[in-house]
Amino acid sequence: MKKVFLILSCVILSFSLISCTKKNKRELWIYTSMYKDMIEMMKEDVQKNFPDMKIQWFQSGSEKVAAKISAELEANNLQADVLMTSDPFFYIDLKNKGLLLPYESPHTKNIPIYLKDADNYFSTQRVPVVVMAYNRTLLKPDDAPKTFKELTDGKWKGKVVMASPLESGTAFTAVATLSTKYGWDFFKKLRENQTLSTGGNSAVRQKLESKEYPVGIMLLENILQAQSQGSPLEPIYPEDGVILVPSPVAIFKRTRFPEEAKQLIDYLFSETGQRWMIKANMYSPNPMIPPPDNAKTFNFVLKKAFPWNPEFAQTVFKDHQTIKDTFAKIMFE
């Protein structure tokens, strides 16, 4: 009996120690929609700057990250400490629900005011841009479309592919921007023109490189990465506007390590942190940081970009589900 009691005591003690260790584990969780190869590039340097903290990453598309966060909140078991996705509208929702911790990093002083939350709950940490692309083995430069609007012309029937806003946060921003500019008739004409909407930006790249489609709507970063790997894709900076996708970073209020989370934010906005974004073929919101290799300058992009301001962001946030439902009805039914 004494032996059984001793064994049970040891088991209980072991479980207690495991539970205590888990509770006291110094982990900082980053939930992000950045591509896995980008995380692999930078995570060693990030970890080096936090020797006393284990930096953990959860990576998926913006829509799936949002779904995971919503499920964890529903279960009262939110694991994320820091959020970095390409769905700027999700941050408005989190702010309105009182789930974020305000913090203004000293490294954000050069970032344009319209790319920062007025109350410092989040700030744009990188700026992916949506442009058009074409396969140069199928089209000559002079034959490629010059504007988004041109894609509704009959000459592009069955020749255009784009990501789905139901799966990609950047595609959602593109749809919200273009529907604001041209109305839903634009997408009705794209549907009549047999435009394919599928997957995320990687799916668009695959369709273009396999020569299934000569033209696509996609992220510039995917085009630049493809070119660095010998791909025949070429970017088109549309004359009717480049689409900005301000991608913020924020701290969850529930974090057990607010000071370390703030230090992480400082790192991400530092020159070192921002140059990782450039290496990943995205623009820095800091105009003092140079653009990615083989990309136009950020000032060039801003001059050609569709307007981005808090009013637009609030309107899209309010109509978020309606935009998705309307797009799905037009393009998929």
The amount of helix comes to 40-55%
CATH C-level category of the largest domain? Alpha Beta
The CATH architecture of the largest domain is 3-Layer(aba) Sandwich
Number of helices: 13
Radius of gyration: 22 Å
Mean pLDDT: 92
Order of helices and strands: HEHEHEHEEEEHHEHEHEEEHHHHH
Strand content range: 15-25%
As an assembly, this protein is single chain
N-to-C span: 70 Å
Low-pLDDT residue spans:
4-23
Q: Number of DSSP strands?
A: 12
CATH T-level topology of the largest domain: D-Maltodextrin-Binding Protein, domain 2
The CATH homologous superfamily of the largest domain corresponds to Periplasmic binding protein-like II
The biggest sheet, with number of strands, parallel, antiparallel or mixed sense and barrel status, is: 6 strands, mixed
The total tally of domains equals 2
